[in-house]
């Protein structure tokens, strides 16, 4: 399995257990479902034996359903937080989400409870942040725009991956890893600089440079989704146990949360007086 920028996907097992519908162009597509026969007779593994050893192999539907459940939970939690006005819950919810994400990553085991806990807590955190921002008359309705933007980018990148418009090759993965590291380093440097000078390097002050930087970060987050789709696709091809669909859902949710935050930030810049 190719390496990915998402740490959650680096602990997936890689055993080969037969062919199933995948996210790629030759399979049924992420949303299509249905099984596809793959591999030669020599690589065939008795499904009964595979189930006894590691459980039912994962399918595309497993990944889609778990990701949809997680995303829906985050959306509902965020919406309720905005409507209730409990914006003060944003910080503790964010801390809970961060702790849970570290547990999932270092525990190296799939968990429906932890994935849903992460999704719910981050939904509350993002809802609190969004609600607080919308107290500014200039930012009314920014949450709905950010949700639509995030969904649009997600499905747009899914189409890009499925059609093969951009192929996830080892070279592409290396470029993405470099871009991700560069973005993180710049964020940290700007944060440190902000302690000594007002606005730091100007990457988050809402000015032209900040807008450009946000667009770049959104681009990196969007293309990171391609790596996530590829990791999920490879997991399906490898026939890893179905329980890892929760692990894949968690990995996709971390990228979706990051993407939402950056889109929300960019919209706030563009709607400033």
UniProtKB/TrEMBL annotation:
Keyword flag Membrane: yes
Keywords: Membrane, Transmembrane, Transmembrane helix
Chain segments annotated as transmembrane: 73-106, 112-132, 144-163, 175-197, 209-227, 247-267
Pfam families: BaxI_1
Name of the molecule in the record: YccA/Bax inhibitor family protein
High-level lineage: Bacteria, Bacillati, Actinomycetota, Actinomycetes, Pseudonocardiales
Keyword Protein transport found: no
Annotated source species: Pseudonocardia alni (Amycolata alni)
Domain of life assignment: Bacteria
């Amino acid at each position: 399995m190719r390496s990915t920028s998402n740490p959650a996907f680096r602990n997936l097992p890689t055993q080969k257990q037969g062919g199933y519908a995948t996210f790629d162009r030759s399979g049924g597509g992420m949303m299509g479902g249905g099984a596809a026969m793959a591999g030669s007779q020599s690589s065939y593994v008795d499904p009964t034996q595979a189930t006894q050893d590691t459980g039912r192999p994962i399918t595309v539907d497993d990944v889609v359903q778990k990701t949809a459940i997680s995303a829906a939970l985050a959306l509902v939690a965020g919406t309720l937080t905005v409507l209730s006005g409990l914006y003060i819950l944003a910080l503790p919810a964010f801390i809970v989400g961060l702790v849970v994400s570290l547990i999932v990553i270092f525990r190296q085991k799939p968990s429906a409870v932890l994935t849903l806990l992460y999704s719910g807590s981050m939904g509350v955190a993002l809802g609190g942040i969004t609600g607080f921002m919308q107290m500014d008359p200039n930012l009314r309705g920014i949450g709905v725009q950010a949700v639509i933007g995030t969904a649009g980018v997600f499905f747009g990148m899914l189409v890009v991956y499925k059609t093969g418009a951009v192929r996830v090759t080892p070279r592409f993965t290396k470029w993405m890893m470099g871009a991700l590291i560069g973005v993180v380093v710049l964020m940290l440097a700007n944060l440190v600089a902000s302690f000594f000078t007002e606005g730091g390097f100007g990457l988050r002050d809402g000015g032209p440079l900040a807008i450009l930087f946000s667009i770049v970060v959104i681009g990196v987050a969007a293309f990171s989704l391609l790596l996530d789709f590829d990791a999920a696709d490879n997991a399906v091809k490898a026939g890893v146990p179905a329980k890892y669909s929760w692990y894949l859902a968690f990995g996709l949710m971390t990228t979706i949360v990051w993407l939402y935050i950056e889109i929300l930030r960019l919209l706030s810049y563009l709607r400033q007086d």
